[in-house]
């Protein structure tokens, strides 16, 4: 039986705030909507070969857009803040 692998980590979230968090060994990732903390921890550990201490998740609400009297919603992603063990880091191209 072949298991389908879920994509947990979509991409690193690079912004001014997230690059400032790297000073404190915290990294930000956009993750799948149905991912939980344990899956995110396992995915970061496997992909980047680091030890994860803590994972915090934020689920952003949808943003309402109105254009020419038509209402739509901008999709918002789920973000995870990952804290690494002291002395370890991830190179994200910043």
| Count of individual helical segments | 2
Strand content: 35-45%
Query: How many distinct beta strands?
Result: 6
Number of domains: 1
Distance between the termini: 40 Å
Largest sheet: 4 strands, antiparallel
Please provide the ordered H/E string of secondary-structure elements: EHEHEEEE
Task: Please state the second-level CATH architecture.
Answer: 2-Layer Sandwich
Derived from helix and strand composition plus strand pairing, the structural class reads alpha+beta
Give me the Rg, rounded. Answer: 16 Å
Average of the residue pLDDT scores: 89
Helix content: 10-25%
Strand order of the largest sheet: 1-2-6-3
The first-level CATH class name: Alpha Beta
Q: CATH H level: which superfamily?
A: RRM (RNA recognition motif) domain
State the low-pLDDT regions, or none: none
Structure commentary:
Helices cover 19% and strands 37% of the residues. The chain has a single domain (9-84), classed as Alpha-Beta Plaits. The chain is elongated. Strand 4 and strand 5 form a beta hairpin. It is built from 2 helices and 6 strands. It starts with 8 loop residues before the first strand and ends in a 10-residue tail after the last strand. The protein has a 4-stranded antiparallel β-sheet. A two-stranded antiparallel sheet has the order 4-5. It has helices at residues 16-21, 37-48; strands spanning 9-12, 26-31, 52-59, 63-67, 70-74, 78-84. With 94 residues, the protein is α+β, with helices and mostly antiparallel strands.
Q: Can you describe this structure in just a few lines?
A:
This protein has helices at residues 16-21, 37-48, and strands at 9-12, 26-31, 52-59, 63-67, 70-74, 78-84. With 94 residues, it is an alpha+beta fold.
């Amino acid at each position: 039986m072949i298991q389908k692998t879920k994509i947990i980590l979509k991409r690193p979230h690079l912004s001014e705030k997230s690059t400032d968090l790297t000073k404190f060994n915290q990294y930000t990732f956009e993750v799948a909507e149905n991912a939980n903390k344990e899956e995110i921890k396992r995915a970061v550990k496997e992909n980047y070969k680091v030890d994860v201490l803590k994972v915090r998740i934020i689920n952003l609400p949808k943003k309402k857009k109105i254009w020419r009297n038509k209402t739509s919603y901008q999709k918002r992603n789920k973000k995870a803040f990952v804290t690494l063990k002291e002395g370890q880091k991830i190179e994200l191209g910043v």
